Every structure is written in structure tokens, then in C-alpha cells.
């Protein structure tokens, strides 16, 4: 049985127009996953499930907020698993960004008044535990705009939480995060 969140995820991915061939293939793969799996948004869906994330930016200061992830050991955007209370994929991303940043008043970047993804990223993780096989996160990534001068508050889900200048990302950041930050910078400049 599909949920409103499932229907929204299909709509968000179907309506998202992508110029990049690799991103288009991921978009089609994600839609195929959702067509085959009514449970495709939930953590229990293995070997893959949709996740939602948002890179938090303060465009007025030219900075991005990243979290040092305790399980992965690198700096990432805020994000995670969808929860039953999430009505839309965008609201899942916004909830995660708010919880992990401690910043109230975040707003997702919108296209024609509707929050829209900016990037997709498929990666292997061990979210079921160290002794469990890896599974795949099909991450749908958004940009969250922080109010000017916003101050972060670290949560228990992070080893560290810091603002970085767009041009001075930490060494322990992967290519995917660097690409996401570059997209966010371009869209908010």
C-alpha cells in the first residue's frame, strides 16, 4: 500500500527536470525503485531505500553548515531516513536539516513556489548496524536557506557541526558533498 509520502516522492522526482545525463539516470532509477516498492521510502526496505537531505547555506555570509557524521567520519550535509510523520519528501529533508542543525526558520529553495530537489546521490551505507550488510541510500538532496546570522546547535546525531566558507570546505568532505555545495552556491548567489 502506498502512502501520501510515496505519492509525493514520485511526484517530486517525476516533476524534477534534469539537464545532466547521470542525474537523469538516477532520477529514472529512483522512480523505478518506487514503482516496484511501495515501502521504498522506509529504512526497513532493503537492499535500498529513499532518504532525504538538505545542505544548509547562509548565502548572505557565503557559508555552508556541515555535520561531522559519527558513523562515516566525514563532513556531510544534514539528512537521513524518512519517518511516518513526514508528509512530503521536502518536509523530511527540512525536518532532518532543522533537527541536525538546531536552526529554526530554515526554508527550502523552491522552484515556482514548490521546494525542489537539486541533486540525487546513490551511496552504500551500513544503517542497519556494523554487523549487517551494506544497503543503498537513494538520497534526494535539497538546499535549505538559513536566516542571516543563524547560529547552529549541535545535536546528538553529530560529532561536530560547523560553518565553512564556500571556498574553504574541510578536507574530510567527499566529492558528492563538494558537488552539492557548488550547486547550492550557484543557485543562491
Automatic annotation (TrEMBL):
UniProt-listed InterPro entries: NUDIX_hydrolase-like_dom_sf (IPR015797), NUDIX_hydrolase_dom (IPR000086)
Gene3D superfamilies: Nucleoside Triphosphate Pyrophosphohydrolase
Family: Belongs to the Nudix hydrolase family.
Protein name: 8-oxo-dGTP pyrophosphatase MutT (NUDIX family)
Xref: SUPFAM superfamilies: Nudix
Domain of life the protein comes from: Bacteria
Domain Nudix hydrolase: 47-186
Pfam family, one: NUDIX
PANTHER family documented for this protein: ADP-RIBOSE PYROPHOSPHATASE, DIHYDRONEOPTERIN TRIPHOSPHATE DIPHOSPHATASE
Originating organism: Kitasatospora atroaurantiaca
